[in-house]
């Protein structure tokens, strides 16, 4: 199995790679491509200068413009006539012979084709002949790099028929490249060493809080739900710490809930199982020959088995809801009729135990819902109220229309819900400590009701005043 690198090592490697790429690009730009960049910029500059000179041809200050452009751009400029005689010349050093020019054109004083008589003046370069050859081929504007790549030459025919020659050296950047290369060697070595050290420091700085969070996660996995989570390094890791802390609290709550559920279910299952076993032994050993006594004992066994089955079914049903959601079959239901039918299911229990369900049910209340599931909610709400009402054994059920919605309410007259219990009444497996009815209760009734009402997108809640009122609106 391939060994995985730590966060700090990976961060350091990426930082080093980034630094190496930056220096590689810098080397390429400053050494390999510097001459090409310089040549391209020089050629574009020469072409712009040539166009500007041609634009001033025929003006009285034409030669002054040539001197200015030649000096600013380090150009060698000649204007010749059709006989290859120099009419005017200028370069970056035209100041050396500007005084001679003021006394007349020295190039026309002798009948010499290609020579200058002043020592500070220059002869026409060899590339001038190449320029003329290209122009004689029919090109009025010519631009080319000399064969030795030492200069760029351009020229054109002026409006008066004279020839403009311009050249600029291209090899002057070579010495600069050598200097830059030597500097880059030292700069690169020092920068890479500094970059490696800085990358190591940064990687360690980032690795520390990540390692602390990982250790905290292991602590949580070991059962400690209150680890010391690092904060203050950066927003993202703070959010991760907060999320991990919240997860730990939820895990602690889930664990406590699970323990409570197991305790409750164990207790609630033990009661009917004990009764079933006890009465079965009584039938076997005592009442088998007494038909009346035997029938009574068998009825108790059947009742307790039914209670046990109902409890197990409730647990299985809620598990299915959690896994697959609540299956709904919508239709327009008569909520008034459905409420009365559910209340009728409590009639035998109320008659036997002295409970009274007061009703205030409006007629003709309809809603768009799954009738079977809504009946389950109504049943759970009434059953919850019966388990928590006071010694008066009264429960009130009402169904009204409020602001265009069907509102169902169940009120008990008990002590109400303790403030400590109120945030958890809808949680699965939660049962309040003060329930009146000691029958098998899984703590899933309100949780199942919540799942069903949430699936219906219904509004629901509890009013904890003078008793307790659970309600929902469709």
Order the strands across the largest sheet as they lie in space: 2-1-5-4-3
At CATH level 3, the topology of the largest domain is Heat Shock Protein 90
Give the uncertain stretches in residue-range form: 101-121, 432-441
Structural class category: alpha+beta
CATH class annotation of the largest domain: Alpha Beta
SSE string: HHHEEHHEEEHHHEHHEEHEEHEE
Briefly characterize the structure.
The chain is an alpha+beta fold and 474 residues long.
Would you give an account of this structure?
The chain is an alpha+beta fold and 474 residues long. The protein folds into four domains: 69 residues; 136 residues, Beta-Lactamase (2-Layer Sandwich); 86 residues, Helix Hairpins (Orthogonal Bundle), CATH 1.10.287; 147 residues, Histidine kinase-like ATPase, C-terminal domain (Heat Shock Protein 90). 54% of the residues lie in helices and 15% in strands. Strands 2-1-5-4-3 form a five-stranded antiparallel sheet, with helices on both faces. Strands 7-9-10-12-11 form a five-stranded mixed sheet. A two-stranded antiparallel ribbon has the order 6-8.
């Amino acid at each position: 199995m391939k060994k995985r690198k730590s966060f700090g090592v990976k961060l350091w490697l990426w930082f080093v790679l980034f630094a190496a790429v930056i220096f590689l690009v810098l080397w390429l730009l400053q050494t390999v491509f510097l001459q090409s960049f310089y040549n391209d910029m020089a050629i574009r500059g020469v072409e712009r200068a040539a166009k500007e000179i041609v634009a001033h041809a025929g003006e009285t200050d034409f030669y002054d413009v040539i001197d200015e452009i030649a000096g600013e751009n380090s150009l060698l400029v000649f204007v010749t006539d059709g006989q290859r005689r120099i009419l005017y010349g200028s370069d970056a050093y035209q100041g050396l012979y500007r005084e001679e020019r003021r006394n007349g054109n020295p190039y026309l004083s002798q009948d010499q084709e290609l020579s200058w008589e002043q020592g500070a003046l220059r002869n026409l370069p060899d590339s001038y002949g190449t320029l003329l050859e290209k122009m004689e081929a029919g090109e009025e504007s010519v631009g080319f790099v000399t064969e030795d790549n030492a200069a760029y030459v351009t020229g054109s025919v002026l409006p008066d028929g004279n020839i403009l020659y311009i050249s600029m050296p291209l090899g002057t950047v070579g010495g600069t490249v050598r200097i830059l290369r030597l500097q880059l060697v030292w700069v690169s070595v020092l920068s890479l060493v500094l970059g490696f050290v800085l990358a190591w420091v940064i990687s360690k700085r980032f690795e520390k809080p990540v390692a602390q969070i990982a250790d905290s996660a292991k602590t949580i996995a070991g059962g400690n739900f209150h680890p010391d989570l690092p904060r203050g390094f950066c927003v993202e890791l703070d959010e991760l710490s907060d999320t991990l802390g919240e997860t730990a609290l939820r895990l602690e709550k889930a664990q406590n809930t699970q323990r409570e559920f197991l305790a409750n279910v164990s207790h609630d299952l033990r009661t009917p199982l004990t009764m079933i076993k006890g009465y079965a032994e009584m039938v076997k050993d005592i009442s088998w020959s007494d038909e009346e006594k035997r029938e009574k004992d068998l009825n108790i066994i059947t009742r307790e088995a039914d209670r046990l089955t109902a409890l197990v079914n409730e647990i299985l049903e809620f598990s299915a809801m959690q896994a697959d959601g609540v299956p709904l079959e919508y239709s327009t239901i008569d909520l008034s009729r459905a409420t009365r039918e559910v209340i009728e299911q409590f009639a035998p229990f109320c008659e036997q135990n002295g409970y009274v369900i007061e009703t205030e049910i409006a007629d003709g209340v309809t809603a768009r819902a799954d009738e079977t599931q809504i009946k389950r909610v109504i049943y759970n709400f009434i059953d919850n109220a019966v388990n928590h009402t006071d010694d008066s054994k009264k429960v009130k059920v009402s169904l009204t229309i409020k602001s265009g919605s069907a509102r169902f309410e169940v009120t008990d007259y008990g002590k109400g819900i303790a403030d400590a219990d109120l945030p958890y009444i809808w949680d699965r497996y939660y049962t309040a400590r003060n329930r009146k009815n000691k029958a098998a209760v899984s703590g899933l009734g309100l949780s199942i009701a919540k799942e069903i009402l949430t699936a219906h997108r219904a509004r629901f809640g509890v009013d904890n005043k003078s008793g307790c009122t659970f309600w929902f609106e469709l």
